[in-house]
Amino acid sequence: MADAKLIDGKAFAGGLRQKVGAGVADFVAKGGPKPGLATVLVGADPASQVYVRSKGRLAVELGMASFDHQLPEDTTQAELLELIGRLNADPSVNGILVQLPLPKHLDTAQVLIAIDPAKDVDGFHPVNVGRLGSIAPGAPLDFPVPCTPLGVSMLLQDALGSLSGLNAVIVGRSNLVGRPVAQLLLRADCTVTITHSRTRDLPGICRQADILVVAIGKTEFVKGDWIKPGAAVIDVGINRIPTPEGKSRLVGDVAFAEAQKVAGYITPVPGGVGPMTVACLMFNTFQAARHKAGLAMTAA
Length: 300
Ligand code: GUN
Prior knowledge:
The protein has 300 residues and is an alpha/beta fold. It folds into 2 domains: 31-116, Rossmann fold; 146-276, Rossmann fold (3-Layer(aba) Sandwich). The protein is built from 10 helices and 11 strands. Strands 1-11-8-7-5-6 form a 6-stranded parallel β-sheet. Helix 1 runs parallel beside helix 10 (274-292) and helix 6 packs across helix 10 (274-292). The two termini are 32 Å apart. The structure holds guanine (GUN).
């Protein structure tokens, strides 16, 4: 059997970013206010600093405003909530992103619930989680949807067209990825199975999947012989492993070399799902600005 077709998330994300940039230019040319994204980072974790900076920079590249708030590690819950209150009230801010994880002394759930659901471009607010959890099949996504899951569903729809009736198996039940991906694929009329670390005969269940989405956070966990020939495999994992030369490289949650020989479609790591997350964040920020302006808001 021929090797799987690569799903080029990097290229798709580039196209999506371009569409957002063009959409923003048109929106502003027609008199709309410049969309704005506020990022909030508490503490000085270097990886988080890089992520947050790249989000702000991309927003500016696409014609939006970026408001970056860097708070010290010892910021109190009250101080953080006060900042969120100000961002909620600020009309130039359409999207608020609080970079996770927060330092341990802060209550993440209380912070997320404080964000105005209309500005919740991560889609983590319980109101938006509930909207996604109760959406009717095929109904419009007229509220913010978590970025990585949205990216996964865009890539699948681009590769396969209609997903109706397909068996989708999701490996991983996190609130960030597994559960929202399940909701999006149910909306697209898939038959969805969510699996996790306690699932019995995981390889056997994976072998039933026309669509296999893996977000378990374990290096090369899913093997080639777990995959149904021709299946579409979406690898959400990003694991850094040492190389024999003393450097490091990124690998996914799927044993790529084996999987590629069996699957019909597969996302590489890096260059698959990863670039979609920030592109979808830009998409969500622009959609929030459109929604506020009374324009239709729809994600894919
Ligand atoms: N940290 C890692 N991924 C994410 C994300 O998608 N959103 C936020 N807010 N923080 C993160």
